[in-house]
Amino acid sequence: MASRIAIFVDRADAGRQLAAALPALSREDTVVTALPRGGVPVAAEICAARALPLDLVLVRKIGAPGQPELAIGAVADGDDPVFTINRDVARAFGLSPQQAEDRGRRLLPEIERRRALYLANRRPLDVTGKTVVVVDDGVATGATLIAAIKALRARNPERILVAMPVGPRDLHRQLQGLADEVICLRDLSGIGSVGGAYRRFDQVDDDTVRGILTRFQPAGSEGGDSD
After folding, report:
1. In angstroms, rounded to a whole number, what is the distance separating the alpha carbons of residues 144 and 137?
2. How far is CA 164 from CA 28, 44, 47, 207, in A?
3. What CATH number did the domain enclosing 106 receive?
4. Where is the Phosphoribosyltransferase domain (predicted)?
């Protein structure tokens, strides 16, 4: 994992640096997919630099009882929602894998709310046989990212490339067998949190997400669900 990047000014700066670090990508056969909300401004810079389309993968962290910021897993949307459960963390809170998944099912209405809010009637972009670049603003535990990758893999892409500004040292190991390539610019060790890698790490609001998606919406992607 490269460690030449000391700090990012903001998510846009991180996105520009990621765009420069990515390999050559075909405009016709690549889709950039962001994890909202924080991953969207990062992905926007990649799309702008490489002239690539942007889509979302909607995923929610399953918080631990009494500690909602601590992930015991994650759930990603789809025809069949994809659950990723950290069994060791769940067990530490006295939860079985099924109980942890049940907590995740309670998040599905919020995922549907966000889908309607961000995407309205826009069809998901077809990723069959394409390269998917999965982008977030950083990873701490990897639970949401793993759920997102599994959901995308079910849509039959040719290749999944994970791109993020900052993540844990063992990120490559975590994603072995899930992603085909991982690009992470900054090791999380010694930083303490994803936000610590940024000088400015403000909340990304819903209007910002909608505006960016409109900016990078491919022609002909409007309309009802493609299923």
Report:
1. 12
2. 22, 13, 14, 23
3. 3.40.50.2020
4. 20-171
